[in-house]
Amino acid sequence: MDATWLAQLPIPKVTAAQPVSGGDINQAYHLTTATEDYFLLVQPNHPQSFYDHEIDGLKLLGQVVNVPQVIASGAIGPDAYLVISYIDVGQGDQFQLGKMVGQLHRTYSPNQQFGYKTAFHSGDFLVRNDWSDNWADFFLQTRLIPLAQRLTQMGRFIPAWQPKFQRATALFKQLIADYDPKPSLLHGDLWAGNYLFDQAGTPYLIDPSVWYGDREFDIALTTVFGGYDQNFYAGYNQVYPLATGYAQRIEFYRLYYLMIHLFLFGNTYQGPVGRILTNLDN
């Protein structure tokens, strides 16, 4: 990282900048100064508004759960940046993490509707958040169906999937008719790379993509790539027990998450998407 660029950040003089893992789309650095450490995210060739939704999410989640503190954001030249507090990573109890996520999901939309005040992007896929009081319509019309259409345009949604997909959307409507989800505040990208524990064992959530939806959406994402153990679900259920039938419903949210990965990262994800569609069709 260029020292001249770093000198323009509104923090004390940076004495060291160590590249670290920052997810799939950001450049990320552990910054050291004479007084404290920071975590820096950089998105080259994007305006400072690139981080607006993440900043909004951190501030919103921070009212309920532990998250890094937003220190500064802006743009230096053509590059957007976000500086947040640095968390020295340790180990902790997933039971406590589960309880924290349960508390998060007991925070509901102020207007009692599904959606969010703004749209956001996943890569260059525009994720709409039009407010709705109908969960099935919201999820299908702003998430699953538009994504399937975009993947079809890209040639990544295999034509043989279309009949299965149509039957899956009909099944989803049937299942939701017997279920009454509340519009919970969601982290929105709750794979295992987006939680951590500090040295004291305190759980934190990071890198949110917030909106208000069925809490089972977040739970579904915890099951896609692993990294959560039974203690997490025990802690969650102590605070906010999952409803009967959740195991069948979360398959649709897993499908959406894998379709997003198919969109972002290519045909490696065709196999997992196809398997879920086949399972839902049986």
Automatic annotation (TrEMBL):
<dbReference type="InterPro" id="IPR016477">
    <property type="entry name" value="Fructo-/Ketosamine-3-kinase"/>
</dbReference>
<dbReference type="GO" id="GO:0016301">
    <property type="term" value="F:kinase activity"/>
</dbReference>
<keyword id="KW-0418">Kinase</keyword>
<protein>
    <submittedName>
        <fullName>Fructosamine kinase</fullName>
    </submittedName>
</protein>
<keyword id="KW-0808">Transferase</keyword>
<dbReference type="Pfam" id="PF03881">
    <property type="entry name" value="Fructosamin_kin"/>
</dbReference>
<comment type="similarity">
    <text>Belongs to the fructosamine kinase family.</text>
</comment>
<dbReference type="InterPro" id="IPR011009">
    <property type="entry name" value="Kinase-like_dom_sf"/>
</dbReference>
